[in-house]
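<context>
A single protein, sequence plus fold
<sample>
Here is the protein in question:
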Amino acid sequence: MNPTKINTAIFLEEALTAHHKFVLSMMADAVQESRVAADDSFSLNEKGTAGLLRLMEILCAIHTPAHPIVLEGKGTQLLADVVPQIYAYLTMHLLKGAEGLAIYVELQHMMAQLVQDAWYE
């Protein structure tokens, strides 16, 4: 066995794949919840506003010229626009590296809160 030819990144790759699948299932629920909240004219609380801003940062970070960013509305309407755009991007792309894993973990935490209505007044 030649240790220089062993792929030690296999564990990171496995973690990325596992988190990718898990986050996608959570985001599908969050897309629905955010649309219901927008339709029912819910208001974002302070945590929801911070979450929306962070999601917009994530959307800009994963943005590529082939996937233009389109943002419309404000408050829950904007949230209902941002979450599906991140979800759509992630259905087509696997994030890479330690930064990608960090984004998946953060999205997992945020989507759990969003689905539990912790972001609304």
